[in-house]
Structure formats: structure tokens, C-alpha cells
Write a structure and sequence with these properties.
This protein has 90 residues and is mainly beta. It is 9% helix and 59% strand. The protein is built from 1 helix and 4 strands. A hairpin with a 5-residue loop joins strand 2 and strand 3. The longest helix has 8 residues. It is globular and about 25 Å long.
């Protein structure tokens, strides 16, 4: 999967400001998003999140309160409760 090279100022700014877009994921309607890459998960309503990362540890059934943001490079996001905005990496 391709993702932005954050060494370039234009890629960095596009990523930081969410200019690649986002997906609104609600646990009751769209529980799994795979095959895409995301660089941030912003929790809208308290959520139980499992996600796969390109580097580092994967998360499993982590309860995250509303208002929190998790940053990284995620290749799959699964919600068993709540809703999030998943910001696209490219």
C-alpha cells in the first residue's frame, strides 16, 4: 500500500490537516475497514477499537473515550462499539 512520505513538507501538511480525507466508521454499520491505510483515528463516541499497524503493536479491544485521537499507520480498523473518523494516509 502506498502512503505519504512525511519527509516532504507538502505531504506532511496534507496529512496533518486531513486533506486526504477521512471515513466515518460506525460500529453498527461498517465494522471493518481493510485494504486502506490511515494515519489517525479520532474517536467521536466512546469506542472499542481493534486495529492493525504497519509498525509497532496492534491494538485489540481497546476502549477509547470520545475526544481521543490515536496516531500511527493503520492498515485495518475494527469497531465493536462507538464511532470514529479514520483519516486516510494518502
Amino acid at each position: 500500500m502506498a502512503h505519504s512520505n512525511l519527509n516532504y513538507p507538502s505531504d506532511f501538511h496534507n496529512t496533518v490537516f486531513g486533506r486526504h480525507g477521512f471515513e466515518y466508521i460506525i460500529s453498527s454499520t461498517d465494522t471493518t475497514v481493510a485494504g486502506k491505510e490511515y494515519n489517525a483515528i479520532q474517536v467521536i463516541t466512546s469506542a472499542t477499537i481493534s486495529c492493525t499497524t504497519a509498525l509497532g503493536d496492534n491494538l485489540s479491544d481497546l476502549v477509547v473515550p470520545a475526544g481521543m485521537t490515536i496516531v500511527g499507520l493503520f492498515s485495518a480498523i475494527d469497531l465493536s462499539g462507538g464511532s470514529v473518523l479514520a483519516y486516510k494516509a494518502a
